[in-house]
Design a protein that fits this description.
The structure is a single chain. With about 200 residues, the chain is α/β, with parallel strands linked by helices. The protein has one domain (about 1-200): 3-Layer(aba) Sandwich (Rossmann fold), CATH 3.40.50. The protein is about 35% helix and about 25% strand. The protein has helices at about 15-25, 40-50, 65-80, 95-100, 120-130, 165-185; strands at about 1-10, 30-35, 55, 85, 105-110, 130-140, 150-155, 190, 200. The strands form two sheets. It has a seven-stranded mixed sheet, with helices on both faces. The chain is globular, with a radius of gyration of 16 Å. It starts with a strand and ends with a strand. The model has no long low-confidence stretch (mean pLDDT about 95). Bound molecules: 5-O-phosphono-beta-D-ribofuranosylamine. 5-O-phosphono-beta-D-ribofuranosylamine binds near residues 8, 88, 109, 110 and 174.
């Protein structure tokens, strides 16, 4: 049973998918803390409704990003987290967090990395006109959006897709893939080799 700290910034539909997978017995994990970079994120309500302790930071708290990350590390340690899940967390994770959880911070990105890095993966892929995009789950490291890739799933963009319909497709894949990959981690089946690549055993 792994103990997850989940970092969010927004609506928290991925957080909800993880909560639901745990309740359904599909993910052998416990969420010990939800941290939000925004005090009004709806994901905080989802966490509270599930009885999960929360920590909400504000824009002011991030005036010193290293201090903010140190505070998050302390809270995660106090809660006993052994993995950190970035579920729509719109802040860059800095050295204090990266050093505290090496190859133990899992991010979801709404595009097929290394394409369309950054905060608007779905919109950037749609605007570019690619025919296939998708979802990437990877370990976060100091190389922003370029840490070891654990899993990817493709999503085709149809001629009649709008940005909204594409976002819905991406979300549906995220909600299924994220808990599945976290379960592989819970089973100890994901490792990072000396070549820097993540492998599923
Ligand atoms: C997801 O699409 C995630 O890939 C991106 O932000 C979105 C978060 O959505 N980084 P939610 O807060 O989980 O609903």
């Amino acid at each position: 049973m792994i103990r997850l700290g989940v970092l969010i910034s927004g609506s928290g539909t991925n957080l909800q998918a993880i909560i639901d997978a745990i309740s359904a017995g599909r993910l052998e994990a416990r969420i010990v803390l939800v941290v939000s970079s925004k005090a009004d994120a709806y994901g905080l309500t989802r966490a509270r409704e599930a009885g999960i302790p929360t920590l909400a930071l504000t824009r002011d708290d991030y005036a010193d990003p290293l201090a903010a990350d140190k505070r998050i590390v302390q809270a995660l340690r106090d809660a006993g987290a052994d993995y950190v899940v970035l579920a729509g967390y719109m802040r860059r994770v800095r050295v204090p967090l990266l050093d505290a959880f090496p190859n133990r911070i899992v991010n979801i990105h709404p595009a097929l990395l290394p394409s369309f890095i950054g905060a608007h993966g779905t919109a950037d892929a749609f605007a570019y006109g690619v025919k296939v995009t998708g979802v990437t789950i990877h370990f976060a490291n100091e190389d922003y959006d370029r840490g070891p890739i654990i899993a990817q799933q493709a999503v085709a963009i149809a001629e009649d897709d709008t940005l909204e319909s594409l976002e819905a497709k991406i979300h549906a894949v995220e909600h299924e893939l994220f808990p599945r990959v976290l379960q592989l981690i819970a089973q100890g089946r994901v490792s990072v080799g000396e070549d820097g690549k993540a492998r599923i055993l």
